[in-house]
Amino acid sequence: MGPPHMAGRGCWPRAPVAGCRGLGGGELEGLAKSVALEPLAIERTVFCEVCGYAGTLDLYARVRGVLTVLDWKSGRAIYPEAFLQNIAYRHAATRRGMPSAQGLIVRLPKYQDDPAWEAMPVPETLTVEDFRAALRLWRWQRAMTGQATGDQGMGRARHQTIPSPTRTTEVR
Questions:
Q1: How far, in Å, CA of 12 to CA of 9, rounded?
Q2: Is 70 in a helix, a strand, or coil?
Q3: Domain 6-127 sits in CATH 3.40.1350.10
Q4: What angle do CA 87, 41, 24 make, to 5 degrees?
Q5: CA 21 → CA 25, 26, 42, 110, distances in Å?
Q6: What is the pTM (predicted TM-score) of this model?
Q7: Which phi and psi angles does 126 have, rounded to 5°?
Q8: What is the DSSP string of 104-124?
Q9: 79: Cβ–Cβ under 8 A, 6 or more apart, which residues?
Q10: Cα–Cα dist 91/113, whole Å
Q11: What is the pLDDT of residues 83-129, one digit of tens each?
Q12: From residue 162, how far is each of 24, 147, 166 by CA, in Å?
């Protein structure tokens, strides 16, 4: 089971993050110590050639002794897609020898008036099949508009013709 929802105080001014020195008062450092954060891999590219996707996970670590994939987000909220992305990273990471028992999304404020930082566990009810369903829908939508579907070069390249009321589009 993942850690409970956690929140803190934001600190960045309404300016690009490049000029920021981090959260005030060492809040994230304190959080890292309080959950016994032990980083194992940072910015690791992972992929699943069977499912046909790749991505870069932000942090693979032990959190309270539990192997965890952490994903950093910036902005005003944690959106539902972040949970599916984390599930995909966890699936691909497992295939690369980095198994995990949980996923965690950590949202950091980008500007001072953004909501405070927060961390949310990925719901245990989500599975890689949920991600794969979303991926199939995304690919279908792109194929229907003649855009690349993103699965070329992963051993899944397809050559198909998709009929349209006004045209026929070839998708590779």
A1: 10
A2: strand
A3: yes
A4: 90
A5: 11, 10, 20, 12
A6: 0.73
A7: -75, 145
A8: EEEEE-SSTTSPPPEEEEPPT
A9: 73
A10: 35
A11: 999 999 999 999 999 999 999 999 988 888 888 888 999 999 999 99
A12: 54, 12, 11
Residue 136 CA to residue 82 CA, distance in Å, equals 17
pLDDT digits (tens, 9 = 90+) for 132-172: 999 999 999 999 999 998 765 544 444 333 333 444 444 44
- The full length of the chain comes to 172
CB atoms within 10 A of CB 56: 12
Q: Are 12 and 111 in contact (CB under 8 A)?
A: yes
% helix, strand, coil for the chain, step of 5: 25, 30, 40
Neighbours of 126 (CB within 10 A): 16
- For the chain, the domains span 6-127
Return phi, psi of residue 103, to 5°.
-125, 150
